[in-house]
Design goal:
Rossmann fold, ten-stranded mixed beta sheet
Length: 533
């Protein structure tokens, strides 16, 4: 499958710890020194604090070892110079002149800033006293490279701060680069992590900032420029989806047009137990602009859906027999294969069920026919997973849209294993299977064979209801039918679906949204994108 090629805006890139370290190393080698980057990072953090907290308030800066602590010391200096009352509490930070990098600690003491080492405060009595009069705490204890379990003195220190935070609801925590205890590659969170209200990170957001549960301890994220050259991140392949980015993927809507201009979509969907999946997927394809939609369904599904959805045409497929009646039968492969001539897209799987005859239909269709660009979802994926050689049967191009349980079946992994490596799996399997792979979940990700991984920063309970996946399938399928390239269609479709969910949450609430509520919001979201060009 052909890989996608488009320019990723630098400000949307997400980097791993290793990538960030390589960028900093290359910047230093090019003359933009580590010392300069630290000075810039500390000043950026101080500027953020000054913009969000009144100058009269006291700031407590928690400083650890390494570069993160150095950023904290620079931040404290700039706050002091701006007239803010600052105290610095140090943990495992060597301050003797021989170890005082760039004399950051010495510069603080020269300004008269009050400092204290945790080793000099064994019961944290002074820390508790300082916290009682503090409005904002800057967490510069552990940096992005820390991934060890928090124990001992640091665990007690963080527990002391958390206790004060609970007692003083107005206290604000600002993390420097990342909350201490957040694993910046995986999003894993140590039990002792101090959840931040705000995080100021440097150069690029980190992978862990946008993975759960890391999202929950990051707070509002600000990315501060520290002067590294954009070209140093040319090889970064992970990025955020935003309205500005997906807008370029919208299909054109010329005035001089007819239904054929906007593509023909065939949807092999639904079964007697899941007729709603046929309704939702076909309706969504129409709501995003597909010119003609045909529902390829069995008679029991047609009887339920056709009266509720007037716009599609219908291809009635043979059903199974006996206990397999009411689902798409094996004989339907020949019927559908012949009917696909002239169609620009096939959507397959939503609500089909997993009867043996339906599995035979899927296998025969893939083995015997050349298919148009195809999206496979839901029970289509479950049927695939039962075939030994299914990756070799996939059409080109192909989009797969599994939720975690479906992805676990496709990969033959446990749900826990999938949850622990969803991003890595999406990227790896997109390359292995030569597909566009959309891995559903809070912060859905979209991967393509060339290694690009797009992250949708949307998590809303409005989408946590039956049928919303069928709407997503129809949405992406409708975009494919209009000629949108598969990776772009999956990214745009995910964005439209997520934004429609957010609009439903605002209009209806976090509970009570049903999948069909999304349908009218899809064109609204598309219109908003077009109007903001």
């Amino acid at each position: 499958m052909k890989s996608s090629s488009f320019s990723i805006p630098n400000e949307l890139k997400l980097v791993s710890v290793a990538e960030m370290q390589a960028i900093e190393k290359a910047a230093d080698a090019a003359g933009h020194s580590y010392a300069t980057m630290m000075e810039t990072a500390g000043q950026a953090c101080a500027d953020f604090v000054l913009a969000h907290v009144a100058a009269a308030h006291t700031v407590l800066v928690l400083v650890g070892p390494g570069n993160n602590g150095g950023d904290g010391l620079v931040c404290a200096r700039y706050l002091q110079q701006a007239g803010t009352a600052v105290r610095v509490y140090l943990w495992k930070r060597q301050t003797a002149p021989a170890h005082d990098y760039e004399q950051h600690f010495a510069k603080l003491t020269a300004l008269g800033v009050t400092t204290l080492h945790a080793d000099e405060d064994p019961d944290f009595q002074q820390l508790r006293a300082w916290l009682a009069g503090t409005i904002i705490v800057v967490d510069a204890l552990l940096g992005t490279g820390s991934n060890r379990q928090i124990t001992g003195q640091l665990a007690e220190l963080l527990a002391t701060v958390r206790t004060a935070q609970v007692a003083q609801p107005t206290m604000v925590i600002v993390a420097v680069d990342c909350a201490s205890g957040l694993h910046c590659d995986t999003g894993a969170v140590d039990p002792h992590t101090l959840a931040a209200d705000f995080t100021v990170t440097f150069a690029y957001a980190k992978l862990g900032h946008y993975q759960f549960p890391g999202v929950t301890v990051t707070g509002a994220l600000t990315v501060a420029d520290i002067g590294t050259a954009p070209a140093l991140a040319d090889n970064v392949r992970t990025f955020l989806l935003t309205a500005e980015l997906v807008r370029q993927f919208l299909p054109a809507r010329p005035n001089v047009s007819h239904k054929g201009t906007f593509g023909k979509l065939m949807a092999a969907v639904g079964s007697v137990n899941y007729p709603g999946a046929a309704y939702l997927s076909c309706a969504a394809a129409g709501r995003v602009g597909a010119g003609l939609i045909t529902g390829a369904v069995v008679q029991p599904v047609w009887g339920v859906v056709a009266g509720k959805l007037a716009e599609p045409t219908w291809e009635i497929l043979p059903t199974g027999e006996g206990p397999e009646a009411g689902v798409i039968g094996a004989a339907a492969a020949e019927v559908l294969g012949a009917a696909l001539k002239g169609y620009s897209t096939l959507v397959m799987g939503c609500g089909m069920g997993q009867k043996a005859t339906t599995q035979q239909f899927v296998q025969a269709l893939l083995e015997k026919f050349t298919l148009p660009p195809t999206l496979i979802d839901a029970d289509g994926l479950n049927c695939l997973a039962k075939l030994d050689n299914w990756p070799q049967l996939l059409p080109e191009p192909c989009v797969l849209t599994p939720h975690p349980a479906e992805l676990s079946r496709l990969c033959d992994l446990s749900m826990d294993e999938v949850a622990a490596q969803r991003w890595q799996l999406a990227r790896q399997k997109a390359a292995d299977w030569q597909v566009v792979l959309l891995a559903k979940g809070p912060y859905t990700v979209v991967a393509e064979p060339g290694g690009l991984l797009a992250v949708l920063p949307v998590a809303t309970p409005a989408l946590a209801t039956a049928g919303t996946g069928d709407v997503l399938s129809g949405t992406i399928g409708g975009l494919l039918a209009q000629g949108v390239e598969p990776f772009a269609a999956a990214c745009l479709g995910a964005w439209l679906h997520g934004a429609a969910g957010q609009q439903c949450q605002q209009a209806i609430g976090p509970a009570g949204v049903i999948a069909s509520d999304l349908l009218l919001h899809l064109p609204n979201v598309m219109n908003e994108l077009r109007q903001n060009k």
